[in-house]
Amino acid sequence: MSYHPEDLMLKSYVEGELDAVSALTIAVHIETCPECKRKVALFEQECGEALFSGSSEHVDHDEQVFDEIFDSIVCLEQNSEPFRMPRKPKQIEVNGKTFTLPVSLSSFVDHIGEWHSYGGKVFSAPVDIADNSRVNLMYIAEDVQIPQHTHKGLESTLVLHGSFSDENGHYQVGDFMIEDGSVKHSPTTSKGQDCLCLTVLTEPMLFTQGIARLFNRFGKGMYP
């Protein structure tokens, strides 16, 4: 794993300042990334220390608020519902294969739409969890090259299974990338290696080479 969210993004995740989709991609990434999980733990510790490092006047006020919250919790009626077991990862099927989703993403398995095939080599399924961006699961079969394209907005990619390469590097499970209009790339899988990714697009992508440019639809671009 070589590609990670920037520290500023991890800190914003801890402080609850990211939008829901960005927070989800970070949560999925840190499930498999010990390095970013450690950074998040440190940022959480810093936030905790900052919270309790105020003046004594603030401490007294905080203790009073805490006591009030505690009293209100104690007064709540007991919940008769059974204890909920920890969440378990869910599975999806595409192109005749079964993949296990990360736990953070498994919560949204019911929001995954139908798979659409592009030539039987690239498959895409929408994940209906955002209004201001397009979230997709994308499966690329082995030995496939997606036509070169760029992005009108931002594209976030998180590798869930397998690997792919482009003009800028090689990406494996857990790798997280954010790209903008300054990047032109042709994602490619090697022989014997397919790839499943979670992608987030804030704007359509624009093809930059060959006949695929017809998909740009007079400058509007297209989503997967």
From TrEMBL:
Residue intervals of the ChrR-like cupin domain: 134-201
The protein's name in its UniProt record: Transcriptional regulator
Family matches, as InterPro entries: Anti-sigma_ChrR (IPR012807), Anti_sigma_zinc_sf (IPR041916), ChrR-like_cupin_dom (IPR025979), RmlC-like_jellyroll (IPR014710), RmlC_Cupin_sf (IPR011051)
CDD domains linked: cupin_ChrR
NCBIfam families linked to this entry: anti_sig_ChrR
SUPFAM superfamilies: RmlC-like cupins
